[in-house]
Amino acid sequence: MRAAHSTDGYFDAHRERILEDWFELLRMPTVGADKGRAAECARCAAWLKRWVRSLGFEVEVCRTSGHPVLLAERPGRPGSPTVLFYGHYDVQPADPVEEWHSPPFEPVLRGDRVYARGAQDNKGQLLAALLGMRACIEAGLPLPGLRLLIEGEEESGSRGLAGALPGLRRRLQADVLMVCDTALHPSGRPAITAGLRGLAYVTVTVHGPDHDLHSGTHGGVAPNPAVGLARLVASLHDADGNVAVAGFCDRLSPPSAQEIELCRAEPFDAEAYQRATGVAPEGGARGVPVPERAGFRPTIEVNGLRSGYAGAGLKTIIPASALAKISLRLCPEQDPDECLDALLAHLRERCPAGLRLEFQDRHAGGAGFRLPVDSPLSRLAADVLTGLDGRGPAFVWEGASIPVVGALRAATGAAPLLVGFGCEADRIHAPDESFSLAQFDLALAYSARMLSALAGG
Amino acid sequence: MRAAHSTDGYFDAHRERILEDWFELLRMPTVGADKGRAAECARCAAWLKRWVRSLGFEVEVCRTSGHPVLLAERPGRPGSPTVLFYGHYDVQPADPVEEWHSPPFEPVLRGDRVYARGAQDNKGQLLAALLGMRACIEAGLPLPGLRLLIEGEEESGSRGLAGALPGLRRRLQADVLMVCDTALHPSGRPAITAGLRGLAYVTVTVHGPDHDLHSGTHGGVAPNPAVGLARLVASLHDADGNVAVAGFCDRLSPPSAQEIELCRAEPFDAEAYQRATGVAPEGGARGVPVPERAGFRPTIEVNGLRSGYAGAGLKTIIPASALAKISLRLCPEQDPDECLDALLAHLRERCPAGLRLEFQDRHAGGAGFRLPVDSPLSRLAADVLTGLDGRGPAFVWEGASIPVVGALRAATGAAPLLVGFGCEADRIHAPDESFSLAQFDLALAYSARMLSALAGG
Questions:
Q1: Which residues neighbour A181 within 8 Å (Cβ) at sequence distance 6 or greater?
Q2: Share of chain A above pLDDT 70, in %
Q3: pLDDT in tens, B321-342
Q4: Which pLDDT score is estimated for B35?
Q5: How far is CA B55 from CA A88, A418, B28, B51, B73, in A?
Q6: Measuring CA to CA, which residue among B15, B1, B13, B19 is closest to residue B139?
Q7: Is A318–B303 a contact, with Cβ atoms under 8 angstroms apart?
Q8: B223 touches chain A (CB under 8 A)
């Protein structure tokens, strides 16, 4: 049973208008990684500018080296802290488009869920948080000082924002850095994210012959880039699923006893995991409990492979090249650049005879972090979340990364507070991404309650 | 200096008309593996029917389960042997089309070379051989009894012909099975192909989650199909490049001393290989000379890989599945079906925990073979080739496969004679396939001379 709050019922009372805004936001195909979508990203930033201005914010859309960043400010109750709210309007690519049951940029409500690319990540959660602010304003509740920072390249490395950050530093100073881009605990309880992994990535291409060769004439003669790439990828992990790259794990320090205790507080439900994903949680280091594997261990994953001919029928070739897109998730102690160096050195050392390596898209996306679980901010958030769900929050160490959070913490001095309302069924980054109205409503209510609590309301 | 023959100069004398026919043949995009090209294949068979009929053949276009087969017959000089000439009008897919310097089905002559898919393999060599017959007929030279068998699925497994073969058996009986689908020796000398490898293939898909997963949340938790596939592919060879599949190589018997001697007669030019292909001949079993690796050793090659997102930018996912197209080239002693069984068992045993394997397109394409190097037919062919090139022919054991040759030999009792005029620069199966006018002329001259020699002329 929820504790009462004067913004309760806001979503239901304004459902039609909210869905209209949400759908309009989702219709803009703001795939930040796609340079061809620059106009859509600019349009989306302008749309958000109008929307946010209507709440009494002073707003500016700032140019960056990439897609624009929206910066907004609204004074709060005197004496209250300043909250920097961070979100992003860019979305992941929609491929494979043919696997969507409705077009990714034509949002539809089916049952309790809105389906579209970005329905949850992050347009849905972002809009819900902004609506929490509107709910407070319309209810006449005090708010803390608010600064908004909404960027357009989170899914592709936040490069534009990173470049602009030094110049924006002064305007972003805050006490709390509020981010609504994470998930509920798998049990459905609210969750405070106490850790995120760092991110880095690189595209590895193995070059062989200068054109595809006949696999008969040349089979067993020319080195095969697809086989060479497979051997390189296979060398990244040992037989027990541990990362086997020299120097990669040197800096790792184990979680504290309190972290392990909180991490194990809620038992991991392997069957529920399999129902939600279609696969047993059998990846990564053998013998390590799942939440600790995701929260406290690094991983090297292949996001995609491409080589030769993989269409219908047969094409008996030795391909000219083979490509793997590789991403790393790193523990806070690991330096993304050092890890990339270790990975590339590992691959170079093992490059099969006759083949040649090329690295592209190298990006050290930012370090991971762990937050104190017993700070006043954590305790206030836990109270607010207990008011929304009597079970109170779980503390989770997520395997995912929001690299910009580390950079913003460093630039602004603000204490991060990561509470989000996603769940596995949302299928973010995949076909048929969605967000339920119930999750949206919860995100809205949390935003309203947390902000009024921070304003001392 | 060539020995004289009354068909000498035929190509030069009819160059314009010949190029017109050749280009017309190449303009038909007869990609046999592509079911959407059935009409083009039928059109090509009809075109060949008209062309061959004009030489006095009785011709029939036979339906098969796939693309039609052209069957033709022409009586020869009384007492002469019967030659079954085999060729194919289908071609490999043209992908990647964007790498062609001119459209694959719009033949052009640049310098001495005709560029188009099929320019060499096999439309070019086929037409040259047919023109050799026309040259003899127009010069009034005697010919042996001729049977033509021209199919449309050589590049995709000859399934239609294989199904039709039992019914055509009687009409295909012959003394010699002449095939013009092979290559010159890398030194440029003519070559008699004394062996071909068998072929088999299969598409392997590794299934993981039922949709792409976020590589952060799930990295190190969900098993990654792309990594799993890489580990499976890497397990197919040992560190020295030998096939490491149990049971795969059990039946191998080494080449005879005479075979090794002939195989080593012409030194292998590794630098020329690298110039032609862009890669050093560093594939396959370490320490085995290149011609023996291709001629007397089996190989497992990956023709293509596909998994997850491999486009521009970044998509941080654990892909739902990963696919490899795998082809085998086999020694005569190896049974393609047994080898596929061994491969699939090997993969099944090693399938990483949580992942699931699926096999598609399984096809045992036919065994390889080795021919006697000192038969009367080999000696006659060697004489004819010495007449064309004073260096005489090299005997080669090619790594490629023409699976149908084994089947035709079994069905007809004919002795195979494989002499072809391809070379590495032709880039068959790859973008910018071409065939030079000089090679075409040589193929034509060989056909004319060999056939008149067989007719006792």
A1: A86, A87, A88, A121, A122, A125, A154, A402, A418, A420
A2: 100
A3: 999 999 999 998 899 999 999 9
A4: 87
A5: 73, 82, 22, 7, 10
A6: B13
A7: yes
A8: yes
Q: What percentage of residues in chain B have a pLDDT greater than 70? A: 100
CB B295 within 8 A of CB B201: no
Least confident interval from A341-350, B26-35, B224-233, B394-403: B394-403
Which residues lie across from A74 on neighbouring strands? A146
Q: Under a CB-based contact definition with an 8 Å cutoff, are residues B365 and B401 in contact? A: yes
Place of tokens 């699923």: A241
Measure the CA–CA gap between A155 and A445, rounded to whole angstroms: 26
pLDDT band at A32; cut points 50, 70, 90 = very high
* DSSP-assigned beta bridge partners for residue B357: B206
| Inter-chain CB proximity A306 and B302 less than 8 Å | no
> Whole-model pTM?
0.80
Reading the block at residue B87, the tokens are: 């060729």
Q: With 70 as the cut, is the pLDDT of residue A1 above it?
A: no
- State whether A285 and B220 contact (CB < 8 Å): yes
Interface mutation vs chain A, best among B252, B263, B429, most A CBs within 10 Å = B429
The least confident of A119-123, A164-168, B204-208 is A164-168
Bin B342: left if φ > 0, else alpha if -120 < ψ < 50, else beta.
alpha
With CA atoms as reference, the chain A residue closest to B400 would be A216
Q: Which of residues 392-431 of A touch B (CB under 8 A)?
A: 398-401, 427-431
Q: Output the six-digit token pair for A81.
A: 């802290």
Minimal Cβ distance to B216: which of A99, A214, A401: A401
Where does B345-389 show beta strands of DSSP type E? 356-364, 369-370
**Within an 8 Å CB–CB cutoff, is residue B436 touching chain A?**
no
Query: What pLDDT sits at residue A325?
Result: 98
CA distance B168 to B179: 18
Distance of alpha carbon B392 from alpha carbon B395, whole angstroms:
10
B180: helix, coil or strand?
A: coil
| Residues of chain A numbered 96-155 and touching chain B (CB < 8 Å) | 99, 155
* Closest residue on chain A to B219 (Cα): A299
Tokens describing residue A24:
């309009």
Chain A residue at shortest CA distance from B350: A239
ipTM over 0.90: no
**B429–A156 CB contact, under 8 Å:** no
Question: Measured between CB atoms, which of B210, B305, B307 is closest to A278?
Answer: B210
Tell me if A303 and B221 make a contact (CB, 8 A cut-off).
no
Cβ contact A326:A301 at 8 Å: yes
* Closest CA–CA distance from residue B164 to any residue of chain A (Å): 21
Q: Is B92 on the interface with A (CB under 8 A)?
A: yes
Nearest neighbour of A217 by CB, restricted to B215, B318, B398: B398
Mean pLDDT of chain B: 94
Mean pLDDT check: name the lowest of A235-239, A354-358, A401-405, B297-301: A401-405
- Which class for B239: exposed (0-12), middle (13-18), buried (19 or more C-beta within 10 A)? exposed
